[in-house]
C-alpha cells in the first residue's frame, strides 16, 4: 500500500486521505511480530505446522484481527487452519479457540492467500498477545525418485520458506523441521542453519520485513504409510427399532513413490522390513465402542483377516487387504457394522431428535481426498438440518428400501481434503412423529394379509378347476 503512495506525488488530497484511512483500518500496518517460532513436523505424509506468534500492537488504535498469509501453492493443499489464544495470567492460563476465516485481499503480493484470525478481545495499542496456530498440508511431499523398486526406501522432497510468510514485520524468528529419521539426503542452507539428528533448525533470523521469502528444499527418507483414500462414502442409517447401521466404502491408494519392477511375495514374506519398507500391509480403523456385526469385504468376497479389539471407550479394527500396498497400488473394500442407537440418538429441547456422530475417516493417519457422509433418516422424518463445526457442502436425497412408502430423507454432507482433525462430532437434527413407527409393521401386516387372501383365492380357484 505504501509504495504507490510514495511513487505518485501528485495525488489529490481526498484520494490520499482515503488511502490513509484504508491503511489505518486494515489490520496489516500497526501490528508487528516480536517473536515467532515454527515447528514443521514431516514424520508422516500429513505435514503439520505449529506456529507460535508473539504479536505486538505498535499502532495507536486497538486491533481485533490478525492475518496469516500462504503462498497459493500451499493453499490448495491446506486441510485445516486452527488458532488458539492463551487466556489468563501466569499460572491459570487456558487455551481458547479463535475463529479463523479465509479472506480475500486486493493487491496481495505474489498472489498470497489470507486467513483472518479474529481475536477474542481487541489488542490495545502497546499491548501484546501470543497466538498458537496449527495448520496441516496434504499431498505436499513429492517422492523423488518418483519410482522405486521393492527393496528401496522412499525419499521425498519438501518445499517451503526458511522464513515464516507473514504480512508483518518479524523481529525474531526460528523454524524447526522434524524429519522421520536421521536419513536426510540434502537440505537448503539459509545461514544460520543447523542439523542435529532428526531436526533441522533455520534461524534465528532478526528483523525481516513483511512477506520475506527464501525458498528451501529438504530431501529426506519417509517410509510412513502414504495412505490416501481417494474416495470414501460413509452411510449411517437410523432405525428407530434400536440400531444404527454403518456402511463405509473405501478406495484406498498408496500415494508414495510408484512401485517399479515385479513384486516378489517370497522376498516380501521372508524379510518385510527390507523388502517393502515403503509399503503398508495393515490399517487400523478406530470405531465407536459397542460395535457389533462387523464385516470387511472387497469385490471378491469376505476378507477374514481382520481383528477386532473392543474396550469401554473404543473399538479397534485391524484390517489387512489381500496384498500389501506399494506405491500407486489401490485397494477397494467395504467395512460395515452396527451400533446401539441409544449411544448416538438424543432428544433436543425443541422437540427434535438428533444424531450425534463422528465425521471424518476411522482409519488412522489417513488423508481422504473426497468424503461423502450420508445420514439416512427414518421414513417420515421432517425438517432435517446438520450442524458441522467446519464448512461442508450439503444437500438432500431420497432413498427407498423395502417396505418404504414415501422413501427416506438422506442428509448428504461432502468435504474434500479431510485429515484426522476432522474426526469431530457433528449433529443432524430432525422431527419425527412416533405414528410413523407403525408404518413398517402396518405394511408388513397388510402384506401378510394380502398374501393370505391371495392364497385363499388361489386354493379356491385351484379346486374349482379340478372339478
Ligand atoms: C460374510 O460375512 C458375513 C458376516 O460375517 C456373513 O453374514 C456372510 O455370510 C459372509 N459371506 C460369505 C460369502 O462368506
Ligand atoms: C456429542 O457427543 C460428544 C461425545 O460423547 C459430546 O462430547 C458432545 O457434547 C455431544 N454433542 C451434543 C450436541 O450432544
From TrEMBL:
Pfam families, per database record: Ribophorin_I
Keywords: Endoplasmic reticulum, Membrane, Signal, Transmembrane, Transmembrane helix
Pathway: Protein modification; protein glycosylation
Any GO CC annotation of this UniProt entry: oligosaccharyltransferase complex
Main location: endoplasmic reticulum
Keyword tRNA-binding recorded: no
UniProt-listed InterPro entries: Ribophorin_I (IPR007676)
Signal sequence annotation: 1-25
Family per similarity comment: Belongs to the OST1 family.
Subunit structure: Component of the oligosaccharyltransferase (OST) complex.
PANTHER family listed in its UniProt record: DOLICHYL-DIPHOSPHOOLIGOSACCHARIDE--PROTEIN GLYCOSYLTRANSFERASE SUBUNIT 1B (PTHR21049:SF2), RIBOPHORIN I (PTHR21049)
Protein name: Dolichyl-diphosphooligosaccharide--protein glycosyltransferase subunit 1
Organism for this UniProt entry: Durio zibethinus (Durian)
Amino acid at each position: 500500500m505504501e509504495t504507490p503512495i510514495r511513487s505518485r506525488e501528485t495525488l489529490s488530497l481526498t484520494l490520499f486521505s482515503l488511502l490513509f484511512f484504508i491503511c489505518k483500518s486494515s489490520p496489516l500496518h500497526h501490528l508487528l511480530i516480536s517473536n515467532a517460532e515454527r515447528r514443521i513436523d514431516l514424520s508422516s505424509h500429513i505435514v503439520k505446522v505449529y506456529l507460535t506468534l508473539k504479536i505486538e500492537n505498535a499502532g495507536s488504535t486497538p486491533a481485533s484481527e490478525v492475518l496469516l498469509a500462504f503462498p497459493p501453492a500451499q493453499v490448495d493443499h491446506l486441510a485445516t487452519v486452527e488458532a488458539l489464544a492463551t487466556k489468563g495470567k501466569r499460572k491459570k492460563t487456558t487455551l481458547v479457540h479463535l475463529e479463523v476465516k479465509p479472506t480475500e485481499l486486493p493487491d496481495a503480493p505474489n498472489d498470497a492467500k489470507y486467513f483472518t484470525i479474529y481475536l477474542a478481545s481487541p489488542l490495545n495499542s502497546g499491548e501484546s498477545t501470543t497466538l498458537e496456530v496449527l495448520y496441516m498440508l496434504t499431498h505436499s511431499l513429492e517422492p523423488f525418485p518418483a519410482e522405486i523398486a521393492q527393496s528401496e526406501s522412499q525419499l521425498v522432497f519438501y518445499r517451503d520458506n526458511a522464513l515464516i510468510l507473514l504480512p508483518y514485520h518479524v523481529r525474531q524468528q526460528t523454524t524447526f523441521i522434524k524429519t522421520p529419521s536421521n536419513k536426510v539426503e540434502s537440505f537448503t542452507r539459509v545461514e544460520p542453519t543447523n542439523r542435529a539428528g532428526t531436526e533441522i533448525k533455520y534461524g534465528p533470523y532478526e528483523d525481516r520485513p513483511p512477506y520475506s521469502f527464501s525458498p528451501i528444499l529438504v530431501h529426506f527418507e519417509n517410509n510412513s504409510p502414504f495412505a490416501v483414500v481417494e474416495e470414501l462414502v460413509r452411510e449411517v442409517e437410523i432405525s428407530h427399532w434400536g440400531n444404527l447401521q454403518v456402511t463405509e466404502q473405501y478406495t484406498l491408494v498408496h500415494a508414495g513413490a510408484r512401485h517399479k519392477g515385479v513384486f516378489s511375495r517370497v522376498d516380501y514374506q521372508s524379510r518385510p522390513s527390507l523388502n517393502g519398507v515403503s509399503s503398508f500391509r495393515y490399517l487400523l480403523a478406530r470405531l465407536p465402542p459397542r460395535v457389533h456385526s462387523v464385516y470387511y469385504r472387497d469385490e471378491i468376497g469376505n476378507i477374514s483377516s481382520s481383528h477386532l479389539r473392543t474396550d469401554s471407550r473404543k473399538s479397534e479394527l485391524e484390517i489387512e487387504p489381500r496384498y500389501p500396498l506399494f506405491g500407486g497400488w489401490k485397494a477397494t473394500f467395504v467395512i460395515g457394522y452396527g451400533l446401539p442407537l441409544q449411544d448416538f440418538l438424543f432428544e433436543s429441547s425443541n422437540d427434535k431428535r438428533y444424531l450425534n456422530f463422528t465425521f471424518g475417516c476411522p482409519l488412522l493417519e489417513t488423508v481422504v481426498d473426497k468424503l461423502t457422509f450420508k445420514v439416512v433418516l427414518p421414513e417420515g422424518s421432517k425438517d432435517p438440518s446438520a450442524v458441522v463445526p467446519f464448512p461442508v457442502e450439503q444437500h438432500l436425497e431420497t432413498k427407498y428400501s423395502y417396505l418404504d412408502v414415501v422413501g427416506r430423507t438422506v442428509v448428504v454432507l461432502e468435504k474434500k481434503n479431510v485429515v484426522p482433525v476432522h474426526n469431530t462430532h457433528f449433529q443432524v437434527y430432525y422431527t419425527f412423529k412416533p405414528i410413523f413407527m407403525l408404518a413398517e409393521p402396518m405394511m408388513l401386516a397388510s402384506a401378510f394379509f394380502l398374501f393370505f387372501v391371495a392364497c385363499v383365492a388361489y386354493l379356491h380357484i385351484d379346486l374349482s378347476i379340478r372339478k
